[in-house]
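User: I've been going back and forth on whether these two constructs are worth ordering. Before I decide, could you fold them both?

Assistant: Sure. I'll take them in the order you sent them. The first construct and its structure tokens:
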Amino acid sequence: MTPPRAAVVGSCNVDVVVSVERLPGRGETVLGGDPVRRPGGKGANQALAARRWGSPTHLIASVGEDADGSWLLSNLSAHGVEVGFCQRSTRPTGVAYITVEDEGENLIVVAPGANNDVRVPPDLDVDLVLCQLEIAVEPVLELLEREIPVVLNASPAGRASLDLLGRCSVVVVNEHEASTLDLAILEHCVVTRGRRGAALFHSGREVASVPAPPVQAVDTVGAGDVFCAAYALEWARGVDPVDALRRAVYAGAYATTQPGAQGALPTREEVVSWIDADS
């Protein structure tokens, strides 16, 4: 089957990462290692993951007219992501400040900058669009008006209305985000559960769950983005939902084995072979 043509509408950031022995508590200061700058942003991460999964992929994003913006677009293009629809903004390129503890868990603060200026091109012709909420909701609403299938990673939580969420073909959230939503209004919702895998819900009813395979997690940043890309593309292929869920869970687990949001991006073939070996 021909891989679906995908577009990812979302954020493109510089990740500034600091490793610590443990995450700080409220009001607490801890000392960390040297800061490391890496390409990131949920949109860029998901676009790279989708391209690595085997689909022709456009990224629709906005970066600054600065060196960081040029660096991010160059990195994406070098890995096969189409960046012709990306815009340049007079605002600075977005930055995510990430603290990662030894066990791989993290805390993240995002300064959106140019991400606030994302615009959807009028001539977009794809099989599905994968979106997140590190950008404004207006581009998502515009895509829904065009009746393009939208898979929405509703993160950060609380930025979209229940009406908007209910109009998306698929909604993907983590457990914290799911706790803030009425899943009964969502016909097709996937809830990620970290090391416990993920579950599939239809109109608020859990219909399937898949455990995560054991891995030595190094960095969980970006694992959810790899999961989203894998699930969206398997769904677009018409793969059985439980198989799609399993492949996405394994893809997300694989992503935790290397540092950085874009450090470990599996191919579809690698994940299918891993699952077959575990069966």
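The second construct, handled the same way:
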Amino acid sequence: MKTIHSPSPKYTDELDIKAHELHDMRFIDLNLYHFGWKRTNPSQSYGPHARDHYLFHYVIAGKGKLRIDQERYSISAGQGFLLVPGQTTTYRSDDTDPWEYTWVEFDGLRAHEALQLAGIGAKNPIYTAINQEAGDRLKDCMLNMVEHSDFSAFRLIGCGYFFLDQLTISSATRRTYSRRRIQDFYIQEALSFIDHNYQRDVSIEDIAAFCGLNRSYFSKLFRDSMGETPQTFLLHYRMSRAAHLLQETRLSIGEISAQVGYSNQLHFSHAFKNIYNMSPREYRQTHFCSDIGK
């Protein structure tokens, strides 16, 4: 856990930022990367920049503007905004009433599903609460993580689930879905197949065939439901399992490569570096749990 903040535990005029990083890749359903709180200066801006993960801001006070490609949005206290991976965005605090906000950067299997339920995404990035009380509860969920950054990784992930739950139930654009949609059945079948077979040399055709669908229709269904192609999802799933093995076991790189479906260790190392920006060996040196086997 990396933390950057003032020693004061309360929000005062002297304190303008608290920022935390969670370096733990063991979680697949939900992973937290950064979270924090900031009181900005007038006209302070960030971007243009493209994110690797979802980044949600809740505006506590003040106002500002968000630009996504050619779209512009005005956002004020009690609202929030979502930055989606791959989007180039710029956001800027107001000249006379600069905003104060709290943020969470996250991703995972459940992240896209929760955002769909909340009705926010690439085409609708603005969050508005159904009422002030609901918005305050969301704010409190986020600030709770900021104020308790010393929680264990498991407890912080639990706080992350509370955040996603409050985001979905408090959103004015919340959507409701039938629990028995046929699409949901196919996606659950696909996720189960991947979980049980990612160690083998499986293809997207194999997954589609298991679900009883042709590849083209399955790929569209999967992308609509999960927000990424099945190829990308399978790659991220394998690499997340590899990161876990590098951190938690003494298996060799070659053994880990084989355990996540790569017969060629060089191909595995290249794929891993594309995701984590470091080689498997470098990742192990940085994240290995030294107390294993003690």
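Notes on the second construct follow. The chain has two domains: 2-170, 182-287. Residues 2-170 form a domain with the Jelly Rolls fold (CATH 2.60.120.10).
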